[in-house]
Structure formats: structure tokens, C-alpha cells
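Ligand: ISJ. Inputs:
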Amino acid sequence: MSASSDTRPPVTHPTPAASAPSVGYQGEPGAFSELALRRWFGGSARAVPLPDFETVLARVRSGEVDFAILPVENTLAGSVAAACDAFLRAEVDVAGEVVEPIRHQLLALPGTPPSALRRVSSHPVALDQCRAFLARHPHMRVVTGSDTAGAARAVAEGGDPAAAAIASEGAGERYGLEVIARDIHDRPDNQTRFWVLRSWGAPMAAPQPGVSHSMLVFETRNEPGALARVLRELAEAGLNLKALTARPAEEPWHYRFIAEVEGDLTSGRGAVAIASATPHMVRSRVVGPWTVRGPGGADGVAAPHADAAGCRRAIDAVDRALVRLLAQRRDLATRTQSLRTGGGDLLRDPAREAEVLRHAAAEARAVGLPEESVRQLFWRVIETCHPAVSEAPPVT
Ligand SMILES: C=C(O[C@@H]1C=C(C(=O)O)C=C[C@H]1O)C(=O)O
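Predicted complex:
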């Protein structure tokens, strides 16, 4: 794989007409997909729980939901095969990518001693991320379920003190369960990539900063070197291959490949690479471009670490990203002001300021931060973006 630097303009990021988009996800409230969609869309999005990946894809394709979120790869368990297959069968576009840290907790009825547990249930992909813990506790029979939060709800509703679930801490809180064993995933830097999906042709809006990613979905002829020839075109265009997924096509021993690259395959050298690769492919389509958000993503937020020094480096990266976002906010606020005043003096809008603080408080609530201190902080943010704004925060 080759390194590449991307200096093209920011990717156009989709925002639906309504301020609160509906976003479909597989699972029940408290699922990791719900956390991932909050990272992308914020606290105001309407999260729509759906039973399986096929239904998620069908709903976004038909426009019944504005977007969908789909877990595609976990750093411990690998590709989420069922999600990739559902994606390959549907005609949808990737509008973004979220990388979400995944922390698994062993949850049971409050007051349950660990020795009383006999059964543990969760989604198979979650169970795969906790193999070492499960191997150390062979007295617990492993039961696969359709999702993590659903397994937690079933333990709460079942009332059986021998039953446990593996799910997020948030799912435990939602269903009144206690954390019996904390952070039981095999590595502390466990994380999952999710694609944000939209139907083809859904409206696009404001450009987002960050490196663009895109993908080529293709099949090759069953002949020596066919895959290598396609990949060589991408490499020679200087596009870094970040993931290559092979899934079975219907015909025996034929494969569909998903090649994800850092770069835009719809223009410039990316488009040239696709043109050169086309004779080597049986079927192909280009999806994207999109930007990545979350640990390790293009927004510069670092991945979690096992040791304190690593965590501090990650905090430093988060802080740098926060300051860059502040500068971005200041530029937007300055532009808003000059549009509103025609270049004159600062024109305050207390109603808008109150709205900004309300939004920040709602986001804080969604991610479990203290609302009042986030409100205060945002008052300072408004002030920092406009040094002339310096009175006490409005009361809402
Ligand atoms: C940027 C603006 O100007 C001022 C600054 C605001 C802000 O930083 O959020 C909000 C309202 C105005 O008092 C605006 O009008 O939106």
C-alpha cells in the first residue's frame, strides 16, 4: 500500500432538508450503532431501531429514513459479513464514515455475584471481541442473539439471576442492569467502522473538511492476476488502499470485492485509475467520496490507548482538533456577521445565542456530559468567536 496526501477541496457532506434527520440502525436503543450515529448526526437526529441489516438497507433505499448507519468492520472481529452483503445487494451511497471506540461490559441484574452467572448472550460479532474473557469463564454458556442492547433488555425483562449480557454501559443503564465485569473486550483500543448510508440521489449540502475516502465495488474475471491488475491501477495513481473486503458472489467461487481508498475515485487521478482498471473488471461501481469522523478518522482525533502516556497523546490530539474546530467556528461566525450587517459592527442576536446554548446542552445530554457546564463552556465559545460578546450568558 502506498501513502498519499490529499489536497483536494473538502468533500460535500449530505445534510437533509429537515434539521433533525431520521437515521435507521440495526438493533435496539442502546446499541453501538446508535452511539455511532450520534457521533455523526448529534443528539437531535431521530434514531430508528430496525431488526436486521436488510431492513436497514431497504428503508434507506426507499427514502423512509434519511440515512442509515451500518457497522462494517471491527478491529478484533474483522468484517461484519452480513452488513457488507446487505450493502452489496442494495443500491445506496456512502455519505460518511464513523469510527467508534467499542467498550463491552458484562451486564446482569443488580446485586448478582459473578459466580451465579451461567449464561451470557450478545451479538456474535460482540462475542468475538471478548474471546479471552469468555475463555476465562467457561462456566458461562455463550448464547448468540440478534444485538447487544436487545440481549441486555432480555436479561432485564427475564429476571433470571443466572443470565448476563455483553453490551455497552449505556445499554446497561437504559435497562437497569449492573456492570458485573468492566471492559471485557480483548484489547482496550477495540473499535468499529460504520458507514453512513443515503439513497442514491439524496441531496448533498455543506462541504466538510477532511481527507476524502471512496470505494470501488467490483468483480473480476476468474483468471490469473485479475485482482492484482485492478489494485495496481489504484496503487499507481498514489491512492492508499485502506481496506479490501472479499465477499462471495452468487456463482460458486466468484467474489465481489470492496476496495476502499483514501482519495476520490470520481475525479482527477482516481477517475483516471478507474478508467484504466475498467477492462480488468466484469462489473464495477464507484461509491463516495466521504469523510471519516471519530478515533483515527480524518478529523484528527486519536485512538484510545492502553497506557497513560498513550492516553495523554490522544488527549493532546483531541485538544488540537477542538482548537481547529474553534477556528472554523470563528470563521463561520465572522462570515455570518458580515452577511447580516453588510460589514458593519457586531450585531448580537440573543435568541440565536440562546438557541446555540440549547443545542449544546442537548448534545451534552446525548453523550452524558454535564449540561450546565457545557452551556457555560459554550457561552465562552460564542465569546471567543466574537471578542466583542462578553456579557453574562442568557438565561433559557
Ligand atoms: C454568528 C452570529 O453572530 C453572533 C454570534 C453567535 C454565535 O457565535 O453563535 C450567535 C449570534 C450572534 O449574537 C449569528 O448571528 O449567528
